[in-house]
Amino acid sequence: MFKISKKILCLSLSLAISIPAVSTNACGTAVYSYKNAFMDLYDKIKAPASGYFSPEGIPYYSPETFIIEDVDYGHETTSTVLANFLQLEAANSYLKGDWSGYMKAWDIVEEYAIPKDSEQPGFAADYDPNYSSIYYPDGNLLDYPQQIDLSVSAGTNPLAKDLYTAYGKRTLFGIHSLLDIDNWHRYGNMGDGKSRASKINITGRGPGETIWQRLMIPAWESFTDKPPFSSLIYKTSIFPKPWAYTTSSSGDTNIIKSAYYANKWASIQNKSSDINSYISRAVKLGDYLRYSMLDKYMKPIGCSSVNVKSDGISAFHYLISSGYSWGSNIDPNGVAWLKGSHIIHQMNQNPMAAYALTSTDMKPKSSGSSMDWQKSMDRQLEFLQWLQSAEGAIASGCTNSWGYNYQTPPIDSPKFYNMAYDSSPGAFDPSSNSSFLSQCKSMANLVEYYYETGDARAQDILRRWVEWVKPNVKVAGIGEFEIPCDIAWEGQPDNWTGTYTGNPDLHATIISYSRDLESAAMLSRILLTYSFSTKKHSTYDLEAFDIGSQLLDSIILGNQDEIGYTNEEQRGDYSRVFDTEVYIPKGWESTSGQGAKLKNGCKYIDTRPALRNDSNWTNVESSYKAGVGPVFKYHRFSAQCEIAMALFATYIEKNDIITPTPTNKPTPVYTSTLPTCILPHSGDTNNDGVVNMADVVILARCFNLTIGEEGFLPNCDINNDGVVNMSDVVIVAMNFGRTK
To answer: Which residue of 163, 239, 476, 724 is most buried, as measured by CB atoms within 10 A?
Structure first.
């Protein structure tokens, strides 16, 4: 059961003198408001002094620069961060009735993250859809660089003709997944070495390459005095000066999802014409994103040999892989390539994006696109059903290329539409499905789809998942909570036959808990949206609402600082900065943009000497020497946006926005789920005329009780919602010390 420590509740209340994001209502008294909390956070994120944005207006991964995870420097960014940016601006535009912020955000994304035609030289003329890609085998890290094998024929591209017919171009329209905003690596764009917001890639040498063993390399390699960095990945003479771009499907689908909401909300406000051209960009993005529904080398699904070539259509698995990539030579020489991904993971599935591109007016221009996305929507739902464990957690994924080289899977491998179960798609260290955050990513998309459609398939998956989560959320007071962190997996799913079996041999065990803000905010939004969905489509899950709202309130009231929300985290893994060797094969030598001598035996820090100039270097180095992990208080952009969207989602459900009133009438004021007018003595549970610790003690005794339960006191249900919870705690905290 969801629990809160009553002792800590009392202590927390006694400290809660200053409440963030308060407004003053008609009574002249402070009122905690989800809307105000959203606007307060939005203003902090956008404030230049907070450091979330570059001078160009591009959101950083984090204001803090020493951070190593999806990026190796905080002032880089990812397409997922850009998706968060667009969603944040869509929500703010809806609240204000002014869509200029959303439009400006889209302009920034297109300007800096979508490669222009001039950045794709040779592709239009040299790409052959009948020979979709060049092939080299994936393998263990020490097997790289791999030899390109021109004798292996990739399949036919089934989308190229339709896309050209629809858009009149052979170049691609996709969001590059990684930007070095401050040009920290010193590569610049198109080889100039100095331009900002430069496009970079990771070496990506198979699933065994960890974040500590990879290099960041330029997307455009025009070097004349050293070998291309791509020669760490593959051996060939046909790409002397290569360029390459890579998309991330999770970022792209969330951009499409944000466009769906922007389109919906602008329509409510009769402002669709303001943003139609921007919605069209998202739809176009979805047209090209179908490349993530194809096998990596466009080989037929169920393939178990590199020598089998597909007709193109047979290469569709209709799930969302990790993305697609494409490239050619800076000096065109008749060679270009395009490929999908072997990595098909549950966390990348987004039926909400598929719904947006099939069931609304956001229909793609390509003739077969809507049908492809409809198939994808259904296939994604089946996929999540197939992967749901006996406990309710969602297992990892599948592959069409066993061993990443089209080998024959073991005979007992469970199958999903002829693809084999993969217990850790894309990464081994750590396992790609060991993080609770990966659970939240897919469930956040699914719950929004359920809210919009009422699809019973989504409801069934979510119900089992939510029931698994509920007992594992622990809120001990303001700012004190624990949610699942690491998950251990055992067994495998049954073969998919079209019906969920309960997967009695597939099990998930939570082995650790954390206070990760991004996961917590996402979880609160999932639980709240699920409760709203059940109220709309089924039987209201009040417990999910209660847990979600109290988790969110705990974050808002206990984790705020001057630029957003944060908590302390200890990074024991940063010892690998000093200890881990970045794999560079013997005999390969070069120089990085930062001037590092790259050769066999380099440690992580040797490949990124600029880290020694970071303001947090002393903290990291001294902690390493002391044998402890350094402590940080990060403000990841994605975490701030997840908190903001949890606040926003709760606000619009409880107090939905109407079309702005004419200027000659007063604009309505909307508040949170708390009373619109909290009197100065609200929270005086014992009616002695003052709100003090005596009231705190009384409220703590009946915390979590609902009407009808033994011990429930109506005076403690201050907002009259039928349960004594964090909403009532907030009121007592706001009025602490007040008298009648």
So the answer is: 724
Task: Please give the Cα distance from 378 to 131 (Å, whole number).
Answer: 30
pLDDT band at residue 28, thresholds of 50, 70 and 90?
A: very low
For 34-123+246-567+634-654, give the CATH class.
Answer: mainly alpha
**DSSP bridge partners of 569:** 632
**Taking Cα atoms as reference points, which of 711, 685, 689 lies closest to residue 698?**
685
Alpha-helical (H) ranges within 327-435 are 351-356, 369-386
CA distance 317 to 303: 12
- CA triplet 428, 429, 430: central angle to 5 degrees? 100
For residue 23, list its beta bridge partners.
31
Burial tier of 223 (Cβ tally within 10 Å: 0-12, 13-18, 19+)? middle
- Domain covering 579-632: architecture: Irregular (4.10)
**Whole-angstrom Cα distance, residue 123 to residue 88?**
34
Q: For 553-592, what is each residue's pLDDT tens digit?
A: 999 989 999 999 999 999 999 999 999 999 999 999 999 9
Average pLDDT over residues 90-98: 97
Considering only CA atoms, which of 381, 336, 410, 352 is closest in space to residue 171?
336
By the 8 A CB rule, do 550 and 672 touch?
no
How is 180-208 classified by DSSP, letter by letter? ETT-TTS--STT-S--SSEEEEE---STT
Q: Has residue 11 got a pLDDT over 60? A: no
327: phi then psi, degrees, rounded to nearest 5? -175, 175
CA 627 to chain centre: 32
Banded pLDDT at 715 (limits 50, 70, 90): confident
DSSP assigned state of 322? S
In the chain, helix, strand, coil percent, each to 5?
40, 15, 45
Contact 514, 485 (CB under 8 A): yes
Neighbours of 24 (CB within 10 A): 9
| Region for residue 44 given its phi and psi (left: phi exceeds 0; alpha: psi -120 to 50; beta: otherwise) | alpha
Relative to beta strand 146-147, strand 234-235 is: parallel
In whole angstroms, what is the distance from residue 646 CA to residue 651 CA? 9
Q: Given CA atoms 32, 37, 43, 44 in this order, what sign does their dihedral have?
A: positive
- Sign of the torsion angle spanned by Cα atoms 243, 248, 249, 252: negative
Classify the C-alpha dihedral 403-409-410-413 as positive or negative: positive
Give residue limits of the domains in the chain: 1-33+671-740, 34-123+246-567+634-654, 579-632
Q: In whole angstroms, how far apart are CA 621 and each of 575, 609, 612, 617? A: 9, 13, 9, 6
Q: How far is CA 46 from the centre of its chain?
A: 20
Reported pTM: 0.88
Contact present, 513 and 483 (Cβ < 8 Å): yes
The one-letter amino acid at 382: E
Encoded tokens for 144: 């790289």
Q: Which of 522, 531, 481, 530 is nearest to 726 (CA)?
A: 481
* DSSP alpha helix (H) spans, 100-248: 100-113, 123-126, 160-167
Q: Which amino acid is at 670?
A: Y
The DSSP secondary-structure symbol of 534 reads H
Q: What are phi and psi of 480, to 5 degrees?
A: -115, 105
Contact 412, 421 (CB under 8 A): no
DSSP 603-670: BHHHH-GGGGGSTTHHHHHHHHHHTSPPEE----HHHHHHHHHHHHHHHHHHS---PPPPTTSPPP--
